[in-house]
Amino acid sequence: MQPHRRAGLVAGLLYLVTFVSSIPALLLLAPVLEDPGYVVGPGADVEVTWGAVLDLVNAAACIGTAVVLFPVIRRRGEARALGFVASRLMEAAIIVVGVVSLLAVVTLRQAGGDGVAGDAGARLAVAQSLVAVRDWTFLLGPGLMAGINALLLGSLMYTSRLVPRAIPLLGLVGAPLHLTAVAASIFGANEQTSTWSALAVAPIFVWELSLGLWMTLKGLRDDAGRPAGEAAAQVPVAA
Mind giving me the DSSP string for 152-181? Predict the structure, then answer.
């Protein structure tokens, strides 16, 4: 297997893993995210814990995409390639902070009776603070960093033609829209669940999904813009 094809296949699969892990994670984490009284109620600790595990898988896959792609994209722009690795690492780190905060809510609910854990009012206050931390990590991790990732990797993919230009163009067009919505949310002018946020994140969602599917099925193109391995196949073999 050609190096470009191998790198594209692994990176594409890892991009798809981020979707397969992060979307179910949101559903599994819903009880603790949506119920203000979760910490003093019956809870759904197993469900929430599995959601946290899937978020950890998502974080690991984020790092993996950058590590696998770096040897290929560094030749197209080393500073941007390194920036992409750094932004993916930061995104993963922020996701992990959110995971830890929700697991702390589970622990607090299970603790039951000693000290602060025995005061329902205090437990509610602490748990709601931890959920608020997770909400911010979701905005700054998969939110803010996704836009930065699209600018860095999208520009590299667009200029190098490693994939068809229509794919990174989605990221380059969507990144400013998404970052604007995120900035508005940071300053309280927008909600993460608003129509504006949904419309702004749509191009980023399609960019990452189409990139993952293309790299998995087709791989990365070579320096001449051809599918990896095509040039080698066209070289005549000496008699």
Answer: HHHHHHHHHTSS-THHHHHHHHHHHHHHHH
Which tens digit of pLDDT belongs to each residue from 188-226? 999 988 999 999 999 999 999 999 999 999 999 875 455
Whole-number Å distance between alpha carbons of 79 and 227 = 25
| DSSP code string of 60-129 | HHHHHHHHHHHHHHGGG-HHHHHHHHHHHHHHHHHHHHHHHHHHHHHHHHHH-SSGGGG-HHHHHHHHHH
Ranges of each domain in the chain: 3-221
Q: Which residues contact 142 (CB under 8 A, 6 or more apart)?
A: 22, 91, 95
Residue type, 157: M
* Cβ proximity of 61 and 14 under 8 Å: yes
Predicted TM-score (pTM) of this structure: 0.88
